Amino acid sequence: MVSCFATTFAAFLIIATSFIANKVSAQSFDHSVSNKVAASAFTTGGMSFKALLKQGFVSLQWNAAANDSIQEVTIEKSLDGILFHTVSVVDQSISTNISEPSAYNDDLIADKMNPVFYRLRVKHQNGRETISSVKKIDPQSAPQMIMISIPAQVTGDSLQFSIPDNWVDKKVVIEIYNNAGELVRRITEPQAMQIIDVEMFDLAAGTYLIRTGCEKQLAVNYVVNPAKL
Q1: What is the pTM of this model?
Q2: What is the count of structural domains for the chain?
Q3: What is the pLDDT of residues 171-199, one digit of tens each?
Q4: Residue 223: CA count within 13 A, CB half-sphere
Q5: Chosen domain end from 141, 160, 176
Q6: Domain limits at 44?
């Protein structure tokens, strides 16, 4: 009976954590934790564009204004900010939902230690062409991923765990995301103690993603908040 429960619980946790990870991956962590995680945006001519540094890739996202008919968007990349080359062309003529941002992910394996630059060349259906401002991404500014041991399941009304010794007395930020990928709680400890105590009693039962960061280090864990009897 115990073995059956453990197997069922493990399967549930794998499915739930995979779903949360996909939702949260599109969101950037608190910049005060990741110490200037590269992110930039611009808005011009009714179109917004932002570049976000993720783990191993850059996420480029853009939105067109409701009254702006775009034919295609060319994504251009440069290693010096001067000479650009095309990395992809996105056909926007068949886009039906302008409220949803368009996106492109660019792998950083080949350039992981050097700054890279991006811009968008936009071709409008009326023949007009515009170019975005240049976005600089510095891969070296990405947070270092570390491991922190956190209980897989909340016991009682709070989640308690120990942080690394080099985080003690420093600013530590804890972010909690629900199974829809929504940020439900952010806790800031200006001078963190060794043991972190996070209240969970008022959160619904389910699986949560916990992101804990200090300076340029970041840890990601998953916990289950069981139903209260």
Answers
A1: 0.50
A2: 2
A3: 999 999 988 788 899 999 999 999 999 99
A4: 26
A5: 141
A6: 39-141
